[in-house]
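Just scan my protein:

. . .
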Amino acid sequence: MVIGLDEQLDVPGPLKRLNVEPYDRVRIIKGHTTYEGLLMPKTEILGDEYVMIKMDNGYNIGFKLSEVKVELVSKRQAPRFEDRELLVLKAGLPKVKVLGTGGTIASKVEYKTGAVYPSLSAEDLYESVPELSEIAIVSTRTLFNIFSEDMRPEHWSVIAKAIAEEVVKEDVSGVVVAHGTDTMGYTAAALSFALQQLPVPVVLVGAQRSSDRPSSDAALNMLGAVLIASRAPFAEVVVVMHESISDESLVVIRGTKVRKCHTSRRDAFKPVNDAPLARVLKGRELVVLAKDLKPRSEDRKSLKVQASFDSRAALIKAYPGIPPEAIEWPIHAGYKGVVIEGTGLGHAPSYVFPSIKRLIDHGLVVAMTSQCIWGRVNMNVYRTGVELLRMGVVPCEDMLPETALVKLMWCLANAKDEEEVKRLMTTNIAGEINPRTEYRGIFGE
């Protein structure tokens, strides 16, 4: 089987006399300024009047053809791939499974129309990221194709079981989960608790910008994810995304300590109350930064899967003027636990204390986190915190509120009673609790 680039890709008409094709390297001269990059296929929207190139920093830039001079620098090397099984035998490359769940990363642009449609096959990946052929033998499996905001705990269970199946039965070197970015942190936390004693890395990856947009991060993010899955010396659940707005490096973040901190920037994902585990330079070079990481293991049967989650847990944000009924509704809804995203060191308005006490009296586990981004809960400093502790509120140390919610769902489904739930909530299971918290500025600034 030979896989080539899409024959339908085209370039603006005026460029055809230069014998240039999509993804050739070209030089654009406008006035006294020169730009260089890969020629992007034309779209119906831009037509023949404009040319667009992808520069080395990852950004796309467009020009009106009548205002520039275009020169061919070098022809692209069209990737050709033999049957994957032959590649395994010939090259001895590690095997990586990519599981698709939806999101921008699992979509493809049709350059004739500019439309984006779901597409996640090995052929698509090798075509869009030809460097993958030098790193791993990639195969794909689509579990479902949904927006990440539609992800539910039952989807986490499906993903966890699918990962376990690939790791144990298919003997892969690692698993990549292609996921929408909006709730990727929740899924990363869920998999961190559901998959115990992992023998290989599990890497969640997404894209902030689809392949039809300038500065798409999809290809480089996928390249880095496959590199981590196939070659990282550690075996943990991690998220791999851009470290900065340029294509210089990707950052590897523990699955229980990651948050999407910006709506659209390519470097939206940051470690919170934790340091990055590793860095990927230019999608090629792996630099391990953290110590005491869980190492890879050859013992596939040691993997323990606890993929059940009880969705009867709520996350409630404390705010000035919050009414008592906003605290008590989980009682009437038949819920079993609540995570309060408190203020400061773990506080809530004192006038809702009777409502919190009512939750506990009805058998609900109530846990406290902070809505501050950095730092940890310390409910022994002020009287209000001490009162909440005496009621039975469980302090969640430096856990992210969303991680605490996912962990509570997991504990409710896997613990034998309320006391074990409370004990597990204060036990570090997957790196969600650090004994010491250091401040790290936003976006590295």
